[in-house]
Amino acid sequence: MGLFGLLGKDKKKEAEKLANERRADQEREEIVNRQMKEHEKLTWPQIKPISPVRVRDGQGNESIPAILTDPVSKERKDEIGPMVFQPQMNSDTLRFLSMQELIFILTTMETFQKAAPLENFEANRRIVYNEIISRLRDADRIFIMMDLTTGYPYLDHGHTLVYSEEEFARAAAGVLTAQYRRVSVQGYGGEGEPAVSGFFTFMFYMGASSLLLDNGYY
After folding, report:
1. Alpha carbon distance 184, 177 (integer Å)
2. For residue 184, what are the CA distances in angstroms to 130, 132, 144, 146, 187?
């Protein structure tokens, strides 16, 4: 009798556990559906111009510097964008996103929050932000925009420009060069290059207050 009694209690606990999980899933689904409805008129964010500076040729005609390509396709945005509607951001899922996809998610959260409050916005934003910071801190290689006039990192309104991919850095340098900025790209962490940690140490002693990551993209 005692054994049967214990088995019965175990089954009851298991049933309660399953019921609670189903309830939690239902509540989560309701929150997601509500938030999707509240933001249904919004579109996914797009990359912004790297600089508002306009360039004119010798005849005074305005020329447009090379346009940077959005690194996150519409299909990919449709796939990962709805993550912002989850009441609890899953840090395990974030590990499979690229740096630009992470920043796209962060940008989307901040944009959508202004239109209608997102559930647990601050906590979820911190999870995404921390993942980006960890990626940058632990990166094997990063790319810095250098100012050829001063020989120091190029500053954009006081921000040091750091890029997660060489492709992004060189494309951005092309745009800035078209705007008559004397810049070049310096890699850190590659063969024959300074260590990534050395860059952060250097910027600390230079008194740099902030970094702008992948300017011209997300």
Report:
1. 9
2. 29, 25, 8, 5, 10
Cα separation, 33 vs 85, whole angstroms: 8
Asked whether 190 and 64 are in contact (CB, 8 A), the reply is no
* Number of residues written out for the chain: 218
Position 177, amino acid: T
Cα 153 to Cα 160, 174, 198: the distances in Å are 6, 16, 13
Q: What angle do CA 79, 172, 162 make, to 5 degrees?
A: 80
Q: Looking at the predicted structure, is the pLDDT value of residue 117 above 70?
A: yes
Helical H runs in the chain? 2-38, 74-80, 91-94, 99-115, 121-137, 166-178, 196-206
Percentage of residues of the chain with pLDDT beyond 70: 83
Residue with the larger pLDDT of the pair 140 and 205: 140
Alpha carbon distance 217, 164 (integer Å): 11
Report pTM. Answer: 0.84
Per the structure block, which two tokens stand in for 100? 């630009």
